[in-house]
User: Which sequence fits this backbone?
């Protein structure tokens, strides 16, 4: 009987590759983020610097890390770059694409809210609370904050929910869409606030209810509230667009002689 071939011992660098891959996948290391200095990273992992260099070379060969001469090692900023310019600009200009994005957000953000309510840890809740407090402060600065900044703060709140979901696919989908999401929020803000100040009050109340449901672990409520929030955004935008079309038609009519 032939003896089976001896098991190959796993290389230490492979263990480090797996650990860094996990950090990237879970979002602890983000696209474009610089890794700690080689010496500090080797000490953190408890390995030699040659083993660390070998791991970094393997990750660079896979396109996950980028080493810059004299500048350190970075997570590739191309990770999750599915929706970057010029696609972002193309989608931003198309009204149907804006509607499509809202419909897509229904599915995505409802699931994020559901799992965040089930899985959020204490650090997740701290980050989510900080993000929500920025949303509150943003609404209090009405008239003293740009639409772009408001859109960025709102989008970061939804990103914090995705991070708390502990679902790598949901998180990286949201991150790959982040620029598009941010611009969508800005566009929505411009379309909704023309109707009246009560819209802002409703939106803040909806964010408050969603935040509270996640913090209290009410998963089904969180999913429902996320969907109701986006339903409201769609409804208000549709009303604003209808009103704009009515005004446009009225302006085209000639006054009687």
Assistant:
């Amino acid at each position: 009987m032939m003896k089976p071939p001896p098991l190959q011992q796993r290389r230490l660098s492979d263990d480090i590759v797996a650990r860094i891959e996990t950090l990237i996948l879970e979002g602890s290391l983000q696209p474009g983020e610089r890794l700690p200095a080689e010496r500090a990273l080797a000490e953190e992992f408890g390995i030699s610097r040659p083993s660390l260099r070998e791991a970094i070379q393997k990750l660079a060969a896979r396109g996950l890390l980028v080493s810059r001469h004299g500048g350190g090692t970075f997570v590739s900023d191309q990770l999750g770059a599915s929706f970057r310019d010029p696609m972002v600009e193309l989608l931003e200009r198309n009204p149907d694409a804006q509607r499509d994005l809202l419909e897509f957000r229904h599915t995505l953000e409802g699931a994020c809210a559901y799992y965040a309510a089930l899985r959020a840890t204490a650090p997740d809740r701290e980050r989510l609370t900080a993000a929500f407090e920025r949303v509150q402060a943003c609404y209090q600065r009405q008239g003293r904050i740009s639409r772009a900044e408001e859109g960025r703060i709102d989008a970061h709140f939804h990103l914090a929910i995705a991070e708390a979901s502990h679902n790598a696919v949901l998180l990286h989908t949201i991150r790959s869409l982040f620029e598009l999401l941010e611009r969508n929020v800005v566009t929505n803000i411009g379309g909704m606030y023309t109707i009246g100040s009560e819209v802002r009050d409703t939106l803040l109340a909806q964010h408050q209810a969603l935040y509270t449901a996640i913090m209290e672990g009410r998963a089904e409520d969180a999913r429902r509230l996320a969907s109701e929030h986006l339903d409201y955004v769609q409804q208000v935008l549709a009303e604003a667009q209808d009103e704009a079309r009515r005004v446009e038609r009225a302006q085209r009519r000639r006054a009687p002689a």
Observations:
- The chain has two domains: 12-76, 86-237.
- Residues 33 and 75 are 5 Å apart (CA to CA).
- The chain has eleven helices and two strands.
